[in-house]
Amino acid sequence: MIDVKDIRKHFKIYDRYPDLCYLDSAASALKLEEVTKALTDYMDYNGTNVHRGVYKLSYEATNAYEETREVVAKFIGAKPDEIVFTRGTSDGLNMLAQSYGLNFLKPGDEIISSELEHHSSQMPWLNVSQKTGATIKYVKLDQESRITIEEFKKVLTKNTKVVALTHVSNVMGYATPIKEIIKLAHEVGTLVIVDGAQSVPHMQINVKDLDCDFLAFSGHKLMGPNGVGVLYGKKKLLDMLPPVDFGGDMAEDVYTDHMSYKDAPYKFETGTPMVAEVIALKEAIKFIEKVGIENIYQHEKYLHNLALAGLAKIKNVEIYNPTSETGIISFNIKGTHPHDAASVYDKNEVCLRAGHHCAELIMHHLQVVGTLRASFYLYNDEKDVERFLAATKEASDFFAMFMEE
User: Fold this and answer.
1) pTM score above 0.90
2) What are 316-337's pLDDT values in tens digits?
3) Residue 275: partners with Cβ closer than 8 Å, 6 or more residues away
4) 371: helix, strand or coil
5) The CATH number of domain 4-28+293-404, selected from 3.40.47.10, 1.20.1070.10, 1.10.10.10, 3.90.1150.10
6) Is 21 part of the annotated catalytic residue set?
7) Which of 84, 171, 176, 381 has the fewest C-beta atoms lying within 10 Å of its C-beta?
8) Catalytic residue from among 21, 212, 351, 358
């Protein structure tokens, strides 16, 4: 079991806001003190560039930067030369669409997406389809709004070149049967790109076991810095793909009429990277490993189930994902716009999300303008659940008066 009181000692935000009830970790997790210390240490005591200088400070920065690559690789079961540092999940997924999609796809080729996707997983491939003439197809969701193997098989053909799917939905919290999907896709020679933004911070991921071709995730969702992310890719595929940005550090040789690039992953890391953010990212991963990713997952599920049981006792609450495998609850107060309802939570200093969560396709599928979303992480406790439920009851009672009128 997780000792939340001890966990919170690592988050300085609780020093300033001891009664903070933060339930928006699916958007961005709170920041560890170890992470902010690593950031400021680099800024205060180093600040040099990596991969360039031959002096001691640059050497130390480079070592710290590359150490993170090794830590990340071990964390997800990859090799260091399969780890590309990006600005976040969106950046990594867009990079793949531009590098592979725009260079290799053509009319007659097919791309598989779904209505569960975050905009960053779907929009880059919609753009590719519009520019290349490739066809984008969507897995039909089942009655629970899940991606199933049965429906995936219906859209997979010999013409499918790319499968780009979420591992865990940021709205519904559902875990896609991604390992089985990858196996089926590979049988017809299809690349599989996994949006791991909501899975990597919360559950054990091994990219070799999944056999995914690419997987992207963000540092800020696992208590790391904003503005840094990771793109994993099989080395042979990273070697095959052309870079999408050109400039310093990625170049090998440059002449007036031709140029060559460094090997992957460096050919995808153009210019001065996010040195401080990359160095600090490993502190977040090391903390997760110390606590134990399985312990984190079980803690989230405990709070999730506790909250679901409480919501069931409050009238006019419509829950869209009661069978979610993760700590995400998407719901609405019946007859109430989520933004209106969110004002009640804010008044009670309960931080949760309201809107379409950058995933409008699932909102269209659910036939709603948006939802309220509560998401739990390792620093939440039973008191947070109690305050969440109390605010929900207050919102339900308040807006019920208008429904009666």
Assistant:
1) yes
2) 999 999 999 999 999 999 999 9
3) 42, 49, 50, 61, 65
4) strand
5) 3.90.1150.10
6) no
7) 381
8) 358
